[in-house]
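Record OmpA family protein, 213 aa.
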Amino acid sequence: MNYILECSLAAALVAGLIGCASRPADAPSNAPASTSVCARQYAESATSAEQLQALLDRCGWDTEASIPALQKLNGLPAPSNLQPIALKRRVAGAQVVAVTLEADVFFNLMQAYPHPLAFSKLDQLAARISEGFEVTRIEITGYADPNERTEMPQWAVDRKRAEFMRKYFEARGIPPGRIIVTAAAPRHENTLEGRARDRSTAVKVVILRQNKT
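=>
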């Protein structure tokens, strides 16, 4: 698979989707990837998601650093600086309604750790969750595009994406027993745009809140 072609075309077709990341500022598009930067030892020395994603953005699939970097990135925990979602206090006697919130979170090719822009979207979802006084359940469905499923099935990247989202919500204070995680077959056409949309997780959150009317 041509990693750079897949990413650049998908990003152009799917405005706003975080299906691919751009090259880092210090890696001009017309410059060849440095052998030292794309060597295996660089992946082994990288420790943060930012470092690993920058390496993959720059080196693609054609270097010895790619697989070690992906394995390390996909095994990272949720960020340590996440704060519990502050739910509202329930008012006695107020009318209660159940509200369902939905969001799709997109990932780079073969990655199960979200891009920084995806965390901004999750912050927006957390703000909406905080309007309630209780989270009754969160349903997370992980997806992978057809190429990810057929070329690297042993990676189970759809399941890993969903499991990362579980860790994210647990880190934000949601009880584990209220989080349901599954993986599902691709839901879009096998095109550049469809594959970008399938590198994702679908998140459905049911909250209880006081009726605003």
